[in-house]
Structure formats: C-alpha cells, structure tokens
Amino acid sequence: MALLKIWDEENGVWLSMGWAEAGGGLGVGGESIADLRNEPYIVVSPSTLLTAESVLTAGAGIVLTPAAGILVISSAIGALDVANIPFITLTSRVGLNSERYLAAVAALTLVDGGPNNALTITPAWAAPASPSVDLAASAVGAADSFAHSDHTHQLNQAIVPTWTGLHIFNAAGAAVVKAIVRGIAAQSANLQEWQDSAEAVLVQVEPDGEIAILVDSKALKLGAGSDMSVYYDGTDGHVKTDVVAPSDLKVTCGAAKTLELQTAVYDDLFMPLAGAKVPATHTPSWVPYSTNLNSYTFDLDDYADLATTEVLHGYKEGTDLELHVHLITNGANNATARKVQYQVFFSWGDMDEVMGAEDSLSAEADIPAFEADRTHRYLELGSVAGASYKMGSIIKVRIKRIACTGTEPDDDPFVEMVGLHFRKNTLGSRQEHVK
Hints:
The chain is mainly β. Among the domains are: 2-121, no CATH class; 265-426, Galactose-binding domain-like (Jelly Rolls). The protein contains 2 helices and 26 strands. The protein has helices at residues 33-37, 52-55, and strands at 2-8, 13-19, 42-44, 61-65, 70-74, 87-91, 110-112, 118-121, 132-135, 152-155, 192-195, 201-205, 211-213, 220-222, 228-232, 237-240, 260-272, 285-288, 294-297, 303-310, 321-328, 338-349, 359-367, 376-384, 394-402, 414-426. It is elongated and about 120 Å long. The N and C termini lie far apart (109 Å).
C-alpha cells in the first residue's frame, strides 16, 4: 500500500488517499533505492510550472499542467518499489482542499509508467463556477463548483421575495434619492400596491403615477396631529378641516388666478318690483299684501320698468340666462283652474359695445283649482341667448301683464320680482374687467 497525501498549506491539514500497486516503479534523479526509502516525502510546490532543476536532482522531470489538472513525475533510471515510498506531498500556495478545490467525488489515480518510469496523478478537480452569479431567493445550493478569486455576486433582479423583516434605506448622501420604483415602457400594472393581510389593495400607485385610496371613507390625513382629511364616502367627496379642531381652509391661487369650477353652478340676478318705475297709465297698483307689507299687482296691460342689472363677475361667459318671474296668488282659488300671463322685455349689452336689440319672452302661470291664498308661484319664461356675452355686461328689463289663454284669476296676483338665473364657474373675475 502506497499513500498519497496532499498538504493544504493555507488551512494546515493533510488530505490523504491510498492505493495498492503490484509492480509500479518510480525513479528520481539518479538517487538509489535506499536513499529514496529514507526520504519521508517529496514536496512539489506548484507556484509555477515546476521542473526537475527546481526541486529534484538533474535528470528527473516533473510536469504540472494546472488547467488540465494533471501532474506527471518521471525519472531517468530503473524501476523503484513504489510500495515502499511513504508518501508524496503536494503543497499549494493557494491552498488545495476538498471543500473548495476538489469535487466531492474526486479521485487521484496512480498509473504505472512501466518502462518509462512515470508516475501520473490525475485528480478529478472541481470546475470553477461562472465568474458572476446572481443571488436568487432559493435554498442553499449544493454544487461542486467553486468561486473565482474575483467572483462577483449580484442580486437577481427577477426574483420575487416575500420580505418578513424590517428594511431601512439610508441614502449615501443628501442629494441621493433613497428609493425609486421605475416602470417600464407601456407599463400597465400598478407601480406599487399596499395591501391588507387578505391581499386586498388599500392604496395603489397607478401606472401613470396617480395615487388611489380604494376604500370608501378612508382619508388622506394631513398635519402633525392628522388635523385635516380628504376622502370620498362612496357618494360625495369631503375636505374636513375640523378632524381635531375647527380651522379655516385657505386657498392661494396667486396673482390673477382663482378657483374655477369645471362644472358650472347656478346663481341668480334679481330685480325687485318694489323699486320699479311705473308709468302714468297702465300703472300697476301698490296694494297691501298683509298688515305691514305691500306689493305691486298688475291688471292686463299694466307694466313697470325695473332697475338695470349687471351680470356678476362669477358668470361663466358665453352661457345663456334663464328668465323668470316670482309671483304670489292673491286670494284662495275656487273650483276653476286659472291662468295668468306675463311678458318681459329686455336688452343686453357688453361693455364698450353696442347694446343688443330689444327682445322679449312670455309665459303663463297655472293656478290650480282650490289653490290656497298666498301661494308662491315660479314662472319660467325661457332662455336668453348668452353667446359672446361677458361678465360686467348690463341688462335692461320691463315686465308687463298680457292676456292669457284661459280663465284669468279673480284677484290680480302679487308680482314680487323678475330674475335671471346664470351659470357661475368662479367666485369672481381674475381682474377687475377681465374674467
């Protein structure tokens, strides 16, 4: 039995393998058998390509081919009794050990050189791994390969780990972004989702960057004490500034800017009859409405000129006005349904422009049978075309009672005011004379 030992200089351990050789031979550089048997071991240090001159006497040859994993030792003399060689030691400057450099099933085989007196050691060296390997979210590997000295490990960007621990991102400097979530071209899925334990999405960052709170009545809270909230309750949107204590809501738009409603709302221009100018003939009657109140009533063809009104600065320019009259019945009606009709004349004009031509609208108010006394009736006359008109324009108005198509009321109704509903999209104008 001969023994081959590999000395791991880096880790300071022996790696031993033995074999039986019936008639193998080894000769080294002209030394005698007795001299060789007295040698405890032969040391081969593969720092470079080794030759006989570097470690053995002249005449012997050693060839180490590290890339192929083959060591050949040959001598120029007759056969020697290999069985009597205690062991051969290979010492590696980089440290040979089974964990890093030999495969788990590595084998060292002694091949009898025969007449050529050659000893060939062919280990089954482990192959190196790829120079760069991505770290994946998987169990510990069991490969036989080893890492290069300049091996790099980088995180596999395709893995989808389930994190269970706390992660803190500290930027390298004040000018460095701590975290970036970047979509790809034509991103369709959400950039980010916050889910509950049942994987229901509570908040999401959508592909276009919009942030959505997906639960009704759950708010975006603002302030050190969560003093303000913005939320949607499933029907209406809410801005609450009294979550902790009541506070004002201040909106700053800047010079020549204002809040603008994308869906206009309605407001009213109204021209009361109480201050109207009445003619000498066809004059409305100023009569008691109650003990301490009075109103105008109109007989057929009576009329009154009302105060000119200005279209307010919140007016959504270019939209129509809705002309109407407010009246109150005078006395309880009997079993006969009745009607009363009014006509309103108007002229509308913008600043620095010629006033529009006089026009008029009329409509009948229905007074049902048995309608109670002092019932407030709203009479819609129609739309006044507002295309091209602006805020700050003025409207002159006259109201007149004309004959109806049915039965007139026994007592003339009280006429209280003429009104113009207008669409409004701002609190006012951005400048004094410019919307």
